[in-house]
Amino acid sequence: MNSLAQIIDNGSAVSGKRWTVRYREPGGRTGRQREKSFARKKDAVDFATKMEGDKRENIYVDPDAGKVSLRRYADDWLAKKTASAGTLESYERIVRLHVVPHLGSKMISQVTAADIEGLYARWRRDGAALNTIESRHIALSALFSHAVRHRRIPVNPMTQAEKLENPVIPVDDRKLPSFDEITAIAKEIGPRLSPAVWLMTCCGLRIGESLGVFPEDMRDGTLRIRRQVIRYKDASGKYTPKYAPLKHRKEGEWRDIPVPASLEPFIDRLPIRNASGGMPYPDLLRKSWDRAIRRLELPAYNPHDLRHKWTTVALTNGVSIHEVSRWLGHRSIKVTVTGTATSRRTARSAAVRSSKRPSGRTCSHQAECLQRAVLTWC
Q1: Quick check: 319 and 370 in contact, CB under 8 A?
Q2: Of 65, 112, 164, 307, which residue is 20 to 30 A from 207 by alpha carbon distance?
């Protein structure tokens, strides 16, 4: 047999597949011989043409390469993936909880755009927010992109699926907790975890960041946030809390945030520990928060709302959106503008004000503005 695909007429084959395509994998006459049968000659011709075209363009994929379950492929992918500890933890959790239970037994070569769209629909029925689905989409797309690059599948089914629209809608500041409600939540959560509530409220920290603050990180009215706590899977497969670099930061990098004097009484309670005196999981605060919300019969606020509240207070009191974005640790100011808990007009006005402010006053003046804003609110 030569290196080009051949189409053979099997006559009245018992299987009903009359036409067989015989071809070689890349490598010329040394490539492995393969064959596939079809009921219609047109399908056989189309397949033969595709195989030869794929070999010429160096995009040929072995049909057997994708015969591995999504569950197994995901495990191997995560074990070898190079990324920050926080990203790996997030991807592992998404795959384990939200992908494998529904598609884990399927071969990766069998996963279709329809399967992905069905997954989106299931997530929506289960109450997942569009931003949450977007995060899951990113993780799953990274997995299939890896499979494409490593010639396990010809195309990424995520790119073929119809994606759910996720319009950027500013958070409604009227739906954020008031100061009195935050005070009640902090009291209900208890003295061990309440410093995290106030760090998020008065400094705009994420949950994991609030759990990673030490007394020495606060000095002269500035909080130097250096680390976050994440949920980490060690070599033995056991999950444990771990200090990791900040989001969008490398090991050893930090960001400085003006800290109000009202947080000084909480310094002696840092770092935050669990009931056994060990490092807490971020989920500990989330669960304690949810229980407090239920007991107080408050609206379904979430801890991240405190970060939005801090942003709103800062922007509506004249602080530059550029400084707010930097203090929040956003990768881009666009994230701050589109996701802020103020109206678009307020965010644009803040950006305009900051662009007109004399450069010599920027840092210290903005810190003073934030101090006054937070102190006035708190």
Answers
A1: yes
A2: 164
Contact 146, 65 (CB under 8 A): no
14 phi-psi bin (left φ>0, alpha ψ -120 to 50, beta other):
alpha
Backbone angles phi, psi at 213, to 5 degrees: -90, 135
Q: What are phi and psi of 336, to 5 degrees?
A: -70, -45
Q: Per residue in 310-365, pLDDT tens?
A: 988 888 877 888 888 888 888 777 767 665 544 444 444 444 444 444 444 445 55
For residue 38, which phi and psi values (nearest 5 degrees)?
-140, 155
* Among 17, 59, 28, 293, residue whose Cα is nearest residue 154: 59
At 239 the pLDDT is 82
Beta bridge partners of 240: 232
pLDDT of the residue at 317: 78
**Cα–Cα–Cα angle for 35, 39, 42, nearest 5°?**
85
Report pLDDT digits (tens) over 212-246.
999 999 998 899 999 999 888 777 778 889 999 99
Q: Quick one: average pLDDT of 289-312?
A: 93
d(CA 265, CA 308): 24
Which residues in 180-218 are b (16+ Cβ under 10 Å) and which e?
eebbbbbebbeeebbbbbbbbbbbbbbbbbbbbbeeebb
Alpha helices in the chain (DSSP H): 41-56, 70-80, 85-94, 100-103, 113-125, 130-149, 157-160, 179-189, 194-203, 207-210, 282-296, 304-316, 321-328, 333-339, 344-356, 362-377
User: Is the peptide bond prior to 63 cis by the omega test (within 30 degrees of 0)?
Assistant: no
pLDDT tens-digit series, residues 29-51? 666 777 778 888 888 888 888 77
Rounded Cα distance, 337 and 170, in Å:
8
Structural contact between residues 147 and 66, judged by C-beta atoms closer than 8 angstroms: yes
**DSSP string of 44-101?**
HHHHHHHHHHHHHTT----TTTT-SBHHHHHHHHHHH----HHHHHHHHHHIIIIIHH
Q: Tell me how far apart the alpha carbons of residues 291 and 257 are, in angstroms, rounded to a whole number.
A: 30
